[in-house]
């Protein structure tokens, strides 16, 4: 018999008992109505008393023991209690608070174990899966070979691999947000003589990139190291790389493309003013979201490692076919070097081919330093002539002959955009007159 049935049975029994007691005097003397009313009143009073006693006996919700221990600053005991507890949203919330307490006390090993505890909780993973469905985060395959947790980041899937490390879609378990986590195994990529310098430069450049706040630059949130793995947590950006929109593949409207490259030039100008050079500008590092018309430059704070040391395998960090001559040969570089790479990017997107095509590194170096570039008109007749001037200046061999800042290059590109739109209108009117 459940509690409700017991309650009803007890109330009815009390009422019957009260009525029985009230009917005894009725047989002796007194007005009948008064005796009946008294019996009913007595029964109700007894029933109400039983209900009140039953309610007071119901246990009040207990404060989780882990929360009590956390309030008492008994962090180790709270961690043990959480680890032995069940999966629920309350557990995840307590683990957040406990991890923050460990980190504030510089007990980073236990903070990391707490973040891992959160990531492994079934309820937490289910909550994140539901949140991802509403945040346009793709569902990625998660091979068993992927790490589960790096620092406080729970790995959700692989976004891509490059010559140096991999990029994962991850969840920041402290702030509960999606990030792109770029991970580099420093001990594997750098020999012993260059490891310390590489580590120092990695964090120095990550810090510099973290100071960049521009609508066309992907934000760097955090950098850290776990064992031999160094990582940079960046803004997770939706969209497609401009490499998808090369002429001949899925070409973008010329006017739109010119505008996007102008935005990239402005973003680079801003970064250069903050004394941050990208060093690896290329179409795959420019992401465009057609839904929001947003362009983002990715990977600030990573390619700078190429100035420290080559990898054990001798791979040059960055992409040689987009490099300026001075960068390719390890000479001092500046913002004009990034603008050279942006010029290569513009040429490739407009024509579908690289201005310095080659298969071997030695051939790339020879073409970049001494080769000539075929005119844009050889590939597409409809491009404005002024655009050729922008490409020629951006790809000049000598740094002093190039654009010295991105603002100037952006202005030149927008003049080309005006020419292009004027030509489109003129050609359209000419067709109408025929």
Provide the residue-averaged pLDDT: 77
| Rg result | 35 Å
Oligomer: single chain
The number of E-state strands comes to 9
Could you name the ranges where pLDDT drops below 50 across 5 or more consecutive residues?
57-61, 122-136, 305-318
Structural class: alpha+beta
Straight-line distance between termini: 93 Å
Order of helices and strands: HHHHHHHEEEEHHEEEHEEHHHHH
Query: What can be said about the biggest beta sheet?
Result: 6 strands, antiparallel
Number of helices: 15
Spatial arrangement of strands, main beta sheet? 1-2-3-4-6-5
Overall geometry:
elongated
Q: Tell me the strand percentage band.
A: 5-15%
Helix content: 40-55%
SSE blueprint:
Blueprint lengths: L2 H26 L3 H25 L8 H7 L3 H10 L4 H16 L3 H13 L1 H13 L14 E2 L2 E9 L4 E7 L4 E9 H4 L2 H19 L9 E7 L2 E7 L4 E2 L12 H20 L12 E4 L4 E4 L27 H4 L6 H17 L9 H10 L14 H10 L11 H28 L1
Antiparallel strand pairs: 1-2, 2-3, 3-4, 4-6, 5-6, 7-8, 8-9
Helix pairs in contact: 1-2, 3-4, 4-5, 5-6, 10-12, 10-15, 12-14, 14-15
Can you offer a commentary on this structure?
The protein is α+β, with helices and mostly antiparallel strands. It is 51% helix and 12% strand. It is built from 15 helices and 9 strands. The strands form 2 sheets. A 6-stranded antiparallel beta sheet has the order 1-2-3-4-6-5. It has a 3-stranded antiparallel beta sheet with strand order 7-8-9, with helices on one face. A hairpin with a 4-residue loop joins strand 3 and strand 4. The longest helix has 28 residues. It is elongated and about 110 Å long. The termini are far apart.
